[in-house]
Amino acid sequence: MTHFPRLLGCRSQNAFDEKVKFQRNSGLEGPRSKKIQNRQLNKDNGNEANAAFAENRAGKGALVKSTADPGPSSNFIRTIVAKDVQANKHGGRVVTRFPPEPNGYLHIGHAKSICLNFGLAAEFNGICHLRFDDTDPSKEELEYVEAIKNDVRWLGFDWEDRLYFASDYFEKLYDYALQLIKKGKAYVDSLSAEAIREYRGTLTAPGKDSPYRSRSVEENLDLFGRMRAGEFEDGAHVLRAKIDMASPNLLMRDPALYRIRRVPHYRTGSRWCIYPMYDFTHCLSDSIEGITHSICTLEFENNRPLYDWVLDELQVECHPQQIEFARLNLSYTVLSKRKLVELVENGHVSGWDDPRLPTISGFRRRGYTPESIRSFCERIGVAKRDSMVDIALLDYSVREDLNRRAPRRMGVLRPLKVIIDNYPENQTEELEAVNNPEDPSMGQRKVPFSRELYIEQDDFKEDPPRKFFRLSPGREVRLRYAYFITCTDVIKDEQTGEVVELRCTYDPATKGGDSPDGRKVKATLHWVSAAHAIPAEVRLYDHLFHTPNPGEVEEGKDFKSNLNPNSLEVLTSCRVEPDLQGAEPGFRFQFERLGYFCVDAVDSRKGAPVFNRTVTLRDTWAKIEKSQQQKAGK
Ligand code: ATP
Ligand code: MG
User: Fold this and answer.
1) How far apart are CA 14 and CA 476, in angstroms?
2) CA of residue 337 to ligand 1 center, whole Å
3) Mutate-to-test residue for ligand 1 from 131, 327, 333, highest number of ligand atoms within 8 A of CB
4) 197 phi, psi to nearest 5 deg
5) Separation of CA 59 and ligand 1 centre (Å)
6) Is 470 an annotated catalytic residue?
7) Of 102, 230, 325, 375, which sits with the fewest C-beta atoms within 10 Å of its C-beta?
8) What is the pTM of this model?
9) Phi and psi (nearest 5°) for 97?
């Protein structure tokens, strides 16, 4: 069986080879690489490759512990669904749902769930619903509903006319609650919240029955009706299921089904002042919609008996199967709406779409493609054990996709002026530049060249250390698509000693970047023509947190103490090639040698463009420099 064939495509041998190459290039190859290659021979599929990636990283002491099952056939959810279809369970239908609570924006953990639910439906000719699980009026908002719809669509999934809201079922849910009361399976409790907690017992001690547990059906119906009618204050009563106060599963000790909350709801207004709890709402919403497989994350494993209890007691026609999988955890970031809300509301980031956040809207603004997020979700697989995925795997997925499709441009982030003394003044040449060496169909463009250029400050060193092959006095290098140049003089600021300008000569015979006499140079630099380049702001991003697991903190501190103070660097005196003048918001491209970038969709203006760095390229020199610094103990 193939793996999400319609939406996500199959991983191929090529993809695997690429990954092995990536591991080698990035120095990730660990002692277990031999084993990985053997496994590659044995199995040719993406999840296997991912397991190998994970294992390899783990071999180097990295954070990926276990990210995937050995192969698609062992994706236990797909196996369950396939078996059910084969056995004609639910008449062979597959109906899944993605059920977000509209109390925040979606993050990449949600993308995993979206890909899984919509992917399974597509694979088995089924359907997937988008259902808002909106039963807590104090935190939910329409803004979140709209943002979530937008993000699911952007990720490439379509719920068509299957948009649902739990709040549309409030009346039905109320009727179901009445049925339970009439069956003697639910009662109104009037203990305080604190007393309810005390009566619940602990993991080692059974709970105690509430004195209100034996109320008559009539009394319960009367009180529940008056709860709805608004006669009582918040917390005065709750409706509880009558199950078993001695159950070893604490969730089965008479869980609350309804509570009084005199808070208006973003959809139902003030129509209701009692709201159903998650455990009551979720299973019944699934049942009402005819869901066949109700897929959720592992923390709901203990809720499953309650899910089944409610549906069994009410003898509903459709009883979906709840299946749990491990939620996604990603290193150097947090995937919890509660924590993300805190970062947004306390101004630690600029908003839900801050490009440093792991939200779908943050990734979109940063330049990630939906394809790269989907392929990442495919790679990490679906497992039953909790794990932490290395964020490097996400970077890898983004690079892989953008490498194929992003056109190349040149831009200088920290400009250093270069004057070519033997180049005619007032002359401009239009040089041919390749748009994407990976894809000849993307064609070529013209880049203006003239006597005054900018190159990158760190592409020049007056006293080049060993292995620094870029420009230095007396040395010849290639300017991309242009000429060989040689540095003849270094002009410094008299006061600070800072290098402010380089004087160079060029060899007219090397036009296009090759020397007819076969002379070799060891470096190729990017550049822009000073007179033609346009000024731009560039934003560089680093991990939002400086530790792989931001949740690990000393006593008395919280995850925010692990925020990386250098996660955003804004460069305001960049110069970029004129072709980018009219680039549309969201336009993605590569600045040669610097990484993949996109036009910021919020702050970019005509004449004052702002570019976000999506992800870096791999920079060998930066790596050497870093390891040298480490050796020198800096
Ligand atoms: P958070 O813990 O971030 O607040 P949540 O579970 O409260 O998330 P919901 O809006 O209830 O957020 O999530 C909708 C669906 O997405 C649920 O089915 C949930 O299990 C799934 N989901 C949430 N976080 C993750 C994650 N990190 N990995 C995989 N699935 C997730
Ligand atoms: Mg939730």
Assistant:
1) 38
2) 8
3) 327
4) -60, -45
5) 30
6) no
7) 230
8) 0.87
9) -150, 150
